[in-house]
Amino acid sequence: MDEVAYRQIQESFYSNLNGTSPLEISVLLTVPIVSVLLRNILILWLFGSAVYSGLWSTYLIDFITLIAPFTLCCTVYSQHIQAIMISLLSLVVGLLVTGDIATSKHCKQLKFSLSDCLGHKVEGKRHFISYFRAYALIVTAIAILAVDFVIFPRRFAKTETYGTGFMDIGVGGFVISNAVVSPEARGKHKEIRGVKCTVLHVLQAIKSTSPLLVIGFARLLSVKASDYHEHISEYGVHWNFFFTLAAVRVLSTLCFALISPKMSWLISLAVAIGYQYCLTNQGLEDFVLHGSDGSNTRVGILNANREGIFSSFGYLAIYFAGVQFGMFLFKNRSTIKDWCKTFLFLLLLDIILWIVFTLSVQHIQPVSRRTANLSFIIWVFAYCVQLFTGFLFVEIITMVSMEMGFIPINTSVNKKQDSSQRKDSIVTAVNFEESKYCLIGAVNRNQLLYFLLSNVMTGAVNLSLQTILQPTEVALTTLFSYMFILGFIHVLLHSLNIKTKVW
Question: In angstroms, rounded to a whole number, what is the distance separating the alpha carbons of residues 266 and 268?
Fold first, then answer.
């Protein structure tokens, strides 16, 4: 097909999309949670410890359990997500039951009661945060290429103006991912006093975002030079994802130079409500959606990039909410029981957020990724809390399963030692990332490179193929090959202890 005709097909393929229901997206985002649970139980069941060895065996297990299920769920099996989840859960239950039988026969003395298990002290890394941060990149990498093929349902793609599409969550997920591990969230923020110190701190923040700005301009130049397809209403003519991240970083640094990070929740509310007020009552929404002349003009820098510029305030509110959330997650908790209480609190918080979201949509404004309005802010945060809650549940289940003998693992504790003697033992949170071939550890180690390489590979595929016209077999082969190569490169870098952070 000639380029002009194909470009017209592309325009209609990506335009005027209204998304799907929030419930379907919630179900889809449960797949990563179940996938991590299956992977954890399977590795412990097969290898007897978290530090499993062997490049190919490790990577294949991670790829099959962590990548393949979600890839299938958001493409050819998008109508059968529940069936895939039930299958994955059935495997988990089967492994746990088999492990319990094996443990009961051979090392019954190592099994704890539930009450004893909950009282055990916990040490180690908060792995549920690592799961979230890795999957924020993995699902994005899958989606940015899959969306270019017809096997990716249009209802999951980014919406035009209003609505909820799975891909609309992407940037917000990145912002939350950075916020929860920020210095402010981890209590490592240095208090700044005086105008001079404030100015120097903001200048340092601008300097630290220079790689994002360089990458943003590089992307802008490459897209324009190659005439690569882009949807203008997403960010504008020149703006892109990297500029949004840079803007959020600089603005948040300025705010924290003036206000204590402990007030992040208040700053988030103030920015979100103030921005929504401007959208609704001050004509800002009409400007963002239709331009200064009401006819979608793109004349001038502000008109040309109005979506990207003004949506940054919505993402800024999300960032502050993420910082406050991170502070809560990094509070000291000493026992498994404490983490169970945290899980219940997060579950309640998520329910409250969904109720508030429903009220916001009904009485204020529908969700709009394009403006990043109040409903969008609440919606993104609710999904992120859902994922954190699910991944924390996975970590708790993994630790409890080990302690209660549902997994026949090797242990350094003498088998002659009964549970009463081990009552006060310390449980180290299972560190799967200790393996130098762990996919999640590899992705988290080089996050920016993973995202950049996924974008470059996606661009290469689109320049090589007319993706919309490809049959299912070609689309799936291309998508799985791309994810396999992308992951394998990062596992190799991780195994060689190479980190590509540049600032």
Answer: 5
